[in-house]
Amino acid sequence: MTAQNETLTVLYDGGCPLCRREIAHVQGLAKQCESSALCFVDISSEAAGSVTDAAERQALLARFHVQRSDGSRLSGAAAFTAMWSRLPGWRWLARLARLPGILTLLEGAYRVFLKLRPGLQWLARRWDAQPASRASTLSKYLERELRSDHAGETGAVFIYRGITAVARWRRDEQLLAFAQQHGDTEAEHLSLIEAWLPPSRRSRLLGPWRLAGWLTGALPALAGRRAVYGTIAAVETFVDRHYQQQIDHLRAHGGPDGLLPLLERCQADECHHRDEAAALAGERRPGLLRLWCAVVGSGSAAAVVLARRV
Ligand SMILES: [Fe+2]
Ligand SMILES: [Fe+2]
Are 124 and 144 part of one and the same domain? Predict the structure, then answer.
């Protein structure tokens, strides 16, 4: 038994989807109860400084452990019981485990669970990878932003299809290579975002976004390469700011695992597109192109506002 005021460190496997779910629930309960004296260390992370030995880490990952303040460790059912004794709504189970034979029974059940664990982890990972499941982890704010990102990336794919169509017609190999290279990256962004947003949560105006995207690419392509490069620089300047707002939000408020790196990756690609297009467009741009770019910039902003809602 552990003294109620003794700090217990829960050593959990943050790489396991089952452990992550359970610990997120336990952390919520521990927050409700200031006297729980529980702290949590993800031992799957290299940053778990107290565990430097690889064999020790493997042993800790193989079974659930709780570390006492003197450094000794409880494992399996004994560790669960110590943790439950600190949690509102779970203390009765910890008391029950003190009855003769119950801890042995719980340990037996835990060992059966360990045998089933790899299969359950596989199922949980598959479930986590589904768009519907991922979308359920999004706040209302993030869902709306991702809907606008999805609409934007759809538009981006079609911008390059519009450019490609005109470049083929004009037999402009340089413009064709530019459009195909950028278009491949946009198609990748689109599929990454689709993995977060099931069809039922996407914008209902995807048809208009495709058409608007296609025209935003094809019209300047009719005017020539520099108009295309100027247009792309204007669009990507807007997209960079749009992603930055979401990245700032996630850094400040947190969010589901994997979303921040995804947005950072998309933003880095967009900035690369912007800089490449701006360099190709050159410093001096005709007045008509500047006007067109201003229209494209405000059109993108209006589309984002609409796509968040519809
Ligand atoms: Fe993109
Ligand atoms: Fe882009």
Answer: no
